[in-house]
Amino acid sequence: MVELDGTKKGAWFDHAENTGGWIIDDGTPQPARDPIRQRPPRFVPDERAETLRYVLGKTRPAVGTLAERYLARRGLELAAIAARLAEVRQDPISKVLQQLPIRFLPGDRALDHPPAIAFLAQTATGEALAAQLVALTDDGRKDTSREVVKRTLVAGRNWHRVGAFTLPSVVRSQRTHLIAEGPETALSLWQTTGLRTSSA
Asked: Looking at 31-71, which runs of residues are DSSP E strands?
């Protein structure tokens, strides 16, 4: 749930997870609009950052992997997404594919984790503060046979205050910021609209 107006405009709350926060804008938490509340706490790195760094070091760009196949099954074309971003940034598609917040994690015994697609929650400067891993089968489907299909690794407390899975707007003179429930939905919205989209 996201508050769209009033004194708490910009606040969000996930009732399933019993957690909430403030929608970010260029990596900075919005100040609380309610005079009774203080500014939300800042990101505080902790020992979990080491696991996240390890996992990110094992990932590679999603193109040509099971991760790309998983997205294609959902009607999300990685090459088309990269081409659209490359046109706006005036960068080669190969560079954009390297920088996308979508990665592939081969199976990892140390983590006891199968192959997975990794959606990165990043700051405005591109620092990854969290990664949602979705377990994949050998044919690029979500591995629903596992007890834990989705797993989120984080770099510390309050990471969601300053980081999100976000795709920038490719529509000129448009400041609308769409918020989606998860990264796959965010990608679908962005592919359809081209507007800046984040998953909360």
From this structure: 44-45, 60-61
Residue-wise pLDDT for 60-83, tens only, equals 999 999 999 999 999 999 999 999
Cα–Cα separations (whole angstroms), residue 19 to 5, 11, 22, 40, 137: 20, 11, 11, 13, 30
pTM: 0.79
* Element holding 70 (H helix, E strand): helix 66-73
Q: Which amino acid is at 98?
A: Q
Phi-psi region of 51 (alpha: psi -120 to 50; beta: other; left: phi over 0): alpha
Question: Which candidate, 66, 75, 61, places its Cα nearest to that of 141?
Answer: 66
Question: At a CB cut-off of 8 Å and minimum separation 6, what does 102 contact?
Answer: 62, 67, 71, 78, 117, 118, 119, 120, 183, 187
- For residue 162, CA distances in Å to 23, 31, 42, 46, 145 come to 9, 12, 8, 15, 33
Do the bridges between strand 196-199 and strand 177-180 make them parallel or antiparallel, or are there none, so unpaired? parallel
